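Page 42, continued from yesterday. The earlier attempt failed because a stray header line got pasted into the input along with the sequence. Redoing it now with the clean sequence only.
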Amino acid sequence: MPDDELKKKLKEVEQIKVEKNEDITTFIQSLGNTGFNAKRLAVACEIYKEMIKNENCVKFFGLAGALVPAGMQKVIHDFIEEGFIDILVTTGASLTHDIAETLGFHHLQGEINIKDVNDSELHDQALNRIYDVYLPNKVYEGIEDFVSQLKIPNNDMSVSSFLKYLGDNLPPDDNSILKICAEKNVPIFCPAFTDSGLALQLGFHHQKLNLNHFKDMLNMVNLAWDAKQAGVCIVGGGVPKNFILQSLQFCPNSAQYAIQITMDRPEQGGLSGATLHEAIS
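This time it went through. Structure tokens are written below.
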């Protein structure tokens, strides 16, 4: 049996009941009295709520993985619109998919039984597979048409400045991440921008364009340095996770809040699966 001191810390696991017409906030709060990842979801929501309530907290959001193809574009858009994200760090792929939706193209629901998928047939049908979501080749052609017609005013700028220009010049859209970041002056950092279909097309059609990654790196460090308090939410890991954490590493204050959502494991030694505790060392 546990000793008396430990007994005081232990609470019984509650068997939750889903009530009729129960709102999502009440339901998630009830998960805080359960176990496993249900409890962790409730804890993560509570941490993010504290980040939002803290007016001195600068909220860094790292986004990697195929959230836009999976249908999460509007969720990220609304977080930015509501002021829940102050600085966004993401991948070129996420921005490419965001532009695709903003230009009126769509990702398609594919075969859910992956073992039944014939990728050779999909290739012949000019369909790109992202797990169980498909994207027609014509979407990339549409993005290229848009990119080729851009009148970029300055060939020497930071990646974040270019992404602000891009957001300003996209058509009106209620879901676009790039568009809402431009409207709300939320900086987007994309440290691996060249690793994307969007950058590939830019390179072909605007060969004089010289995007300065070092300027972005210094700007990011300055933003992290100036933050009185910092909160971090990392979805997926990868380059955005490292870019955020390495920027905070050189600052006098570490992050006061941290959330990580990932399917990766720490045993492989990759950054995406590394625990938040590992960032301390």
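Notes: The chain has two domains: 12-53, 56-105+153-196+207-280.
Reminder to self: strip header lines before submitting.
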